[in-house]
Amino acid sequence: MQLSLEYVREMAPDENSVVAAQKLVSPRLWESPGLSETALWGTCRGGRNFQVRVDLQNMGYSCNCPSRKFPCKHVLALLMLLATTPDALEVSEPPQWVREWIEKRRQRELAKAEKDQQPAKPVDAAAQAKRIDERELKVAEGLKQLSVWMDDLIRGGIAGLETKPFTFWDDQARRLVDSQAKGLATRIRNLAEIPKSSRDWPQRMMDELGQTRLLVHAYQRSETLSSELKADVRQLIGWTVSQAELTETGEVVEDDWFIFGQQIKDEERFRTQRSWTIGRKTQREALLLQFAPGVQGFPESIVPGTIQSGKLLFYPGTVRQRAKYQERTGETTCSFEDFTFGDSISDFLNQYAERLAQNPWLPTCSCLLSDVTMATEHGQWFIRDQEGNALPLRMQDHYRLLSATGGHSFQIMGEWNGDVLMPLSFLFKGQFQVCS
User: Fold this and answer.
1) By the 8 A CB rule, do 236 and 361 touch?
2) 61 membership: H or E segment, kind and range
3) 214, 134: one domain
4) Where are the beta strands (DSSP E) in 194-315?
5) If we measure between CA atoms, which residue out of 424, 422, 428 comes closest to residue 402?
6) Cα–Cα distance between 32 and 27 in angstroms, integer?
7) Rounded distance between C-alpha atoms, residue 303 and residue 287, angstroms
8) Contact 38/57 with Cβ under 8 angstroms?
């Protein structure tokens, strides 16, 4: 298995874990490190010896150290050893303690798959309907209060919003949380970041307020919407899709999936992982979301730059973008060159416009373009295609991307929010690299 240090860094819970792991990347600190088609293992020497195991089929891992960070420094160090010094690993059959762990993982995966295929247990329909009705009343009251608040805000004008404290937005968001409209609460909190963030912030504020008002209006008239658009609106308000509903209305797509980008964002009490992927045969793009409380690890290991065969289950909606793994069958032998990228920025923007026509609240979408170069004008960086069209970039280190590509054309993969492109990774001369 080919692995780079960039992949390993993306797996780390924080930069301190990376620094700690780098101190353990030495063959002399590992006892009997080994590698097979299915597993990677080794015992890290120290005050105590810790056994480390990695399932190469889905990048699951295990270490018997007491660390509360996932993956711990020992797992990261063993992966770094594979990336930097693969000859230090003996290619052999896994020892018993690794085989037993792998077998238990396969049994759990099989049991989970069988459980997912079993019909759901009968529910108390009357009690469920009562809970839904009670929540509908709470949400309706919350939206009514929000509409009054927004109308007052617009009548008073937005000129003084840059002087408002965060509590001005947070108090309203908390009321929406109490009304069980968490999705709307997040939108209101995000409004607090707009004032004074750029020269055109008043226009951006009006756009966001207009979209929020439109969302409230759509929810209040949800009986007139199509089933797909209704599903979009309810999810944006804060309703979750149950497993039964997802199984019934979701779409299963089997393909070889290239994980081309990932972001991890720290919220108040949990972390969110956003991973973008594209299918080799179907060219379907998908957003995989995972959530983890505190510093705990995410349920599944999803590593940028890897290509995995399997089935994705897409959530209901007009633009079926969000998905989750239904089945993972391991890495494939295909390469990055087997995936198709767009050649024209104008074609991409036309596709984006079509998606917005279906879902006007679409926050972001993926963007994959080939044969682009970097350009700058008046301090703003862009990517430019062969037709001369350009998209503005937003990233921390533009010069790193410029130096890595040397001013030559490359393939870029990122996330577009309608205003700017946030690069997530790029391919240059067949080499995959994560953007900083």
Assistant:
1) yes
2) strand 60-63
3) yes
4) 251-266, 270-279, 285-293, 307-314
5) 428
6) 9
7) 13
8) yes
Q: Can you read off the two tokens belonging to residue 430?
A: 């067949």
The dihedral built from the CA positions of residue 352, 356, 361 and 362, taken in this order, carries a sign that is negative
**Do 287 and 213 share a domain, yes or no?**
no
Amino acid type, 389: N
Q: What angle do CA 33, 36, 37 make, to 5 degrees?
A: 150
Range 113-140 average pLDDT: 83
113 or 97: which leads in pLDDT: 97
Query: Could you tell me how far CA 210 lies from the centroid of its own chain?
Result: 26
Whole-number Å distance between alpha carbons of 374 and 390: 9
Domain identity same for 205 and 105? no
> For residue 292, how far is the Cα from the chain centroid?
12
SS3 186: helix
Mean pLDDT of 132-147: 95
Q: Give the separation between CA 261 and CA 418, rounded to whole angstroms.
A: 18
The widest CA-to-CA distance across the chain, in whole angstroms, is 72
What is the domain extent for residue 73?
Answer: 5-117
- Tokens 């308000």 — which residue? 237
Q: Is the peptide bond before 363 cis (omega within 30 degrees of 0)?
A: no
198 and 274 part of one domain: no
Q: Which two tokens stand for residue 247?
A: 């199984």
Nearest partner of 177 among 167, 189, 166, 191, judged by Cα: 189
Q: Which amino acid is at 427?
A: L
Quote the CA–CA distance of 88 and 84 in Å, as a whole number: 9
The beta-strand segments (E) located in 168-320 are 251-266, 270-279, 285-293, 307-314
User: Do 276 and 251 share a structural domain?
Assistant: yes
Question: Quick one: average pLDDT of 114-138?
Answer: 82
- The residue behind tokens 């990517």 is 383
pLDDT, mean of residues 403-418: 94
Cα 364 from Cα 370, distance rounded (Å) = 20
